[in-house]
Design a protein that fits this description.
The chain has 157 residues and is mostly helical. The chain is 64% helix and 0% strand. Pathway: Carbohydrate metabolism; tricarboxylic acid cycle.
């Protein structure tokens, strides 16, 4: 136990484990390496104050509540689409599905698109995609069988 050779001595290590693998110096990050990593990839403070244009905590809370409300609405619309299909349910599904998808893809953009210009381009693309999705679903509801009937037709295959 109190050997003068220290932790790297052959008497204190398990058989077959080289002394170099047990040194505590290997577990510490060299100062030069830490400084180089800090220069190459500066840490982002994700818990800092909200950046300009990103709203307040109250707005974020209301947005979260809205997301939950739309999710619960979708849970209610699914049985309604089966039990009483019709234009009201078709258009409600079109709106709720589009909004749900818009918010979900918006979170993907927030998480993975960085920089002002790429973020703006991605958000404009998201709004165009959401508008086209809603317009397409409304067109399908008006000029074709509608969402409820189409899903029922798919299930009957």
């Amino acid at each position: 136990l109190g050997s003068p050779e220290g932790a790297g001595s052959p008497l204190s290590r398990p058989p077959g484990v080289p002394a170099a693998l047990l040194g505590s110096a290997l577990l510490r990050r060299p100062a030069a390496l830490g400084a180089a990593a800090a220069r190459c990839a500066p840490a982002r403070d994700s818990h800092g104050p909200a950046r300009q244009g990103h709203g307040s905590s109250k707005a974020a809370s209301l947005h979260w509540t809205g997301e939950r409300a739309v999710s619960v609405l979708l849970l209610g619309l699914l049985p309604a689409a089966y039990l009483c299909p019709g234009p009201a349910v078709d258009y409600s599904l079109a709106a709720a599905l589009t909004l749900h998808g818009h918010w979900g893809l918006g979170q993907v953009i927030t998480d993975y698109v960085h920089g002002d210009v790429p973020n703006r381009v991605a958000n404009v693309g998201l709004y165009v995609l959401s508008a086209l999705t809603f317009a397409g679903l409304c067109h399908f509801n008006y000029h074709d069988v509608g969402i409820c009937k189409a899903v029922a037709m798919l299930w009957s295959l």
